[in-house]
């Protein structure tokens, strides 16, 4: 093929040097814009509190939430199970404040580091009891309610492991931690930072 013909053929298929350069520049600038926008979103999400003291802004509502928490602690559900449920819902919702709180509670209660590490992949792990697995499946179903619709299969697991009263208390527990997650994430609450963990 003649030199001119080869050049023309490359141009037809959009592979001329100029087009390759323009395309590469476009992709590079697009990636840069995406990275900057992600960085700005991350900064907005994690660094600027929106409301310092929600408990002072709406004390009666917070008092009611705390009364629910007290009732759930006395419900007969295992405290380790309560915190596992709270931690898993907080992981799904990306609530750093609550992840910090409940992982700390679990460690203080003697929970193993490996069970904490594996919680995000509990379905593929053998470290959790059938009762815990049922509670975690129900937690994920109700936390992602718009996606799951709380399927019968997940309810069957809960029904097999929990009494009717426990089912109600577990469901209230999941609802409560989702409210706390929304409060903390919505108002950008910052979790405590140990100097040893700081970046």
The N- and C-terminal alpha carbons lie at a distance of 60 Å
Biggest β-sheet strands, sense, barrel: none
Task: Work out the helicity level.
Answer: over 70%
Net shape: globular
Helix and strand sequence: HHHHHHHHHHH
Mean pLDDT: 84
Number of helices: 11
What is the assembly state of the chains in this entry?
single chain
Percentage of residues in DSSP E strands: under 5%
Number of strands: 0
Please, could you describe this protein's structure?
Mean pLDDT is about 85; it is low at about 5-15. The radius of gyration is 25 Å and the shape is globular. With about 200 residues, the protein is mainly alpha-helical. Helix 4 packs antiparallel against helix 11. It is about 75% helix and about 0% strand. The chain has eleven helices and no strands. It has helices spanning about 5-10, 15-45, 55, 60-75, 80-95, 95-110, 115-120, 130-145, 145-150, 150-160, 165-185.
């Amino acid at each position: 093929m003649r030199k001119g013909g080869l050049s023309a053929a490359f141009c037809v298929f959009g592979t001329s040097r100029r087009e390759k350069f323009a395309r590469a520049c476009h992709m590079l600038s697009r990636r840069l814009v995406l990275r900057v926008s992600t960085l700005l979103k991350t900064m907005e999400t994690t660094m600027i509190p929106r409301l310092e003291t929600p408990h002072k802004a709406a004390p009666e509502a917070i008092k009611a939430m705390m009364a629910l928490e007290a009732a759930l602690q006395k419900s007969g559900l295992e405290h380790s199970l309560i915190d596992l449920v709270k931690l898993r819902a907080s992981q799904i919702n990306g609530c750093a404040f609550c992840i910090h709180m409940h992982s700390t509670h679990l460690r203080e209660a003697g929970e193993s580091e490996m069970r904490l590490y594996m919680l995000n992949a509990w379905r593929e792990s053998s470290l959790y009891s059938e009762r815990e697995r049922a509670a975690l499946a129900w937690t994920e179903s109700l936390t992602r309610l718009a996606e799951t619709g709380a399927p019968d299969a997940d309810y069957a697991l809960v029904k097999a492991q929990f009494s009717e009263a426990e089912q109600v208390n577990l469901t209230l527990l999941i609802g409560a931690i989702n409210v706390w997650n929304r409060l903390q994430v919505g108002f950008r609450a910052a979790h405590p930072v140990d100097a040893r963990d700081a970046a």
